[in-house]
Specification:
single chain, 2 domains
Length: 95
């Protein structure tokens, strides 16, 4: 986990933090010491034996299955919402 503002966190998305930190995204925000920050993070990881783990590795099997179920429900709700919006637009001619 790397501390970041919401906008940076969203921009990073699923990129590896070290790749993202050296991308133009931080320089665009005026961060000029990204390489030094990355080195400090790596030193911290080494000192404390930090090993990144996927979400699935951190959750129990039951928790992960619940997460999968929730994500499917969210996807279904999003599809229903999209269909409703499309239906409304077709009915009213508003796009």
């Amino acid at each position: 986990m790397v501390p970041a503002c919401a906008q940076c966190d969203n921009e990073k998305n699923k990129s590896a933090f070290d790749v993202w930190m050296l991308s133009p995204a931080l320089a665009f925000r005026g961060v000029t010491d990204a390489a030094e920050r990355l080195q400090r993070i790596r030193e911290y990881m080494l000192e404390f034996g930090y090993q990144p783990a996927t979400l699935q590795e951190r959750l129990s099997d039951a928790e992960f299955q619940e997460l999968v179920k929730i994500r499917k429900e969210i996807k279904s709700l999003q599809e229903n919402c999209d269909a409703l919006i499309l239906s409304y637009r077709q009915r009213t001619g508003s796009w």
